[in-house]
Specification:
By secondary structure, the protein is mostly helical. It is about 80% helix and about 5% strand. Helix 5 (about 90-115) packs antiparallel against helix 8 and helix 6 runs antiparallel to helix 7. The chain is elongated.
Amino acid sequence: MDRMVLKVLQEIDSIGIPVGAALLSTRLDIPQATVGRILSKLEKEGYLTKVSNKGRLLTEEGLSFLQHESQRKLKLKTADKLITMTTWKSKDKLLEILQVRKLLECQTAELACINGTEDQMEKLSAIMLGYSCEVNNGGLGNDQDLKLHMCIAEMSKNVTLNQMLSLLLTTENAYTDFSLAGEHVLNYRMNMHEKIVNSIKNRDVQNARAAMSEHLDQVISDVDTFYSQDEDANHIQ
């Protein structure tokens, strides 16, 4: 919807009584003729209703639209905050991200057990196989690791959780930082991923959640240790 049209709707809502083009024109600093055309358009679309000669009020549809618009703006604001947070590379911010990940991913692991399709279970197994092969051949496996976590989020069938995790894990290559911090325990991480995957494939909600929690606790410990050592080295220099 056009920004000017949205401003008219919001102003009518804030006034709370039937209002006409003259008052809106003064309050919004928009030509009265323009306001009049906007009011007619919004009335035809069902967002406004005319109250005799007093002016126009929002309809239920108009109120519902403004409510959805407010929720949409709140979601965008939240997404911007997440994006900003993931661009900070300090130890404290990475640990904050991991704490949020733990809350979200324990839930996605649980929901994946319940909602994952057989095709998705096969896809998860294939990603796990690729991850194991890469680690066993000397690689970090961070790309496959990321795919595995995002596959679990997708399997949860919770769009909001999926989108939030995508922001947390993919912006500014945040996942690379988590992978590098755990380079010394790659085999342990691989075993933990196998435990998570097997629990999900068995639709074992309790063990899937517990395995994800244990895995992310280890990642938190790795990041804390890795970046503390880096801070100590910088301090010595």
